[in-house]
Amino acid sequence: MNQYHNLLSSLEKILDKSDIEIDAPMSEHIYFKVGGPVDFLVSPRKKEQVAEIVKLCSLEKIPYYIIGNGSNLLVKDGGIRGVVIKLTDLKDIRMENNLIYADCGALLKDVSKLALDNSLTGFEFACGIPGSVGGAVFMNAGAYDGEISNVIKWAEIIDNNFNIIKLNKEDLKLGYRSSIVMEEGNVVLGACFELANGDKDKIEARVNELTSRREEKQPLEYPSAGSTFKRPEGYFAGKLIQDSGLKGFSIGGAAVSEKHSGFIINKDKATAQDIIDVIHHVQKTVKEKFGVELHTEVRILGEDK
């Protein structure tokens, strides 16, 4: 923290003091409910503030990390050195004809609800994804045969020169859980989605169907970060894990879910290290049994305790 003694005064020139938290426990900001403290947690309320903070940290060589709703993150027990920029206060959503614009901190489920209310189809797949728009664009989030690349028109980002620019769908280079934004380490500030006019009853029926499937098959009663692993080409991660005999496998308070083997859960006051140990054991076992490498979909940040 000592090396950042001038950082607080610099941040206070950009943000209100109430939007800066020192030594914030990251366990309170991610779905897994684990993780040590971050030196500075900042919650900007304007896009221009985000750009200023990113520029400040970059020029001063201070590490910074962007988070949204914390639904796809694992923070290690030693916490994070530097700055975490939390974007959940940027959450406006507006609609014009069949276009919906949403700020980076807006929740996908709220975008899906607005689409449903206005009989727009195409966003049903995201009704149960707990993340925010920024993270969804960053990783081209998807579920139930739909993904962001199917509906996005353009995204607003902070480029490498700290300018706020728009990238159209083609320029975003969206692939399976990947994007140019992820490759370049840019920050997503918002996105515009182009949907189609549809039958409200059919849209609602699809949303209800997906919600029921999610509640029935996913361990929503425990803290987790959703699907822990990316889908290996030609396989399903959950089935590989189950066929490896790992359903219910646990270390400390972390476990492979008995309900869905693709989920690692915080079953009983797990530490981040417990979760990481389970991840590594699963990866090692699946590789030994099937010769398939599992790569984490969950982003892991921070340092060991």
Query: What is the fold named in CATH at topology level of the largest domain?
Result: Uridine Diphospho-n-acetylenolpyruvylglucosamine Reductase, domain 3
Total domain count: 3
H-E order? HEEHEEEEEHEHEEEEHHEEHHEEEHE
Q: Note the gap between the termini.
A: 16 Å
Radius of gyration: 20 Å
Tell me what portion of residues adopts beta-strand conformation: 15-25%
How many β-strand stretches?
18
Low-pLDDT runs: none
Instruction: Profile the largest sheet.
Output: 5 strands, antiparallel
Number of helices: 9
Structure description:
Residues 33-213 form the FAD-binding PCMH-type domain. This is UDP-N-acetylenolpyruvoylglucosamine reductase. The protein is of the alpha+beta class and 305 residues long. It folds into three domains: 2-86, 2-Layer Sandwich (Uridine Diphospho-n-acetylenolpyruvylglucosamine Reductase, domain 2); 93-216, Uridine Diphospho-n-acetylenolpyruvylglucosamine Reductase, domain 3 (2-Layer Sandwich), CATH 3.30.465.10; 219-301, Uridine Diphospho-n-acetylenolpyruvylglucosamine Reductase, domain 1. The protein has nine helices and 18 strands. The protein has helices spanning 7-12, 47-59, 108-117, 133-139, 169-172, 180-184, 200-217, 237-243, 272-290, and strands at 20-25, 37-42, 64-67, 73-75, 80-86, 93-96, 99-103, 120-121, 142-143, 146-147, 152-158, 164-168, 187-194, 196-197, 250-251, 254-256, 264-266, 299-301. The strands form six sheets. A five-stranded antiparallel β-sheet has the order 6-7-13-11-12. A hairpin with a 5-residue loop joins β11 and β12. It is globular, with a radius of gyration of 20 Å.
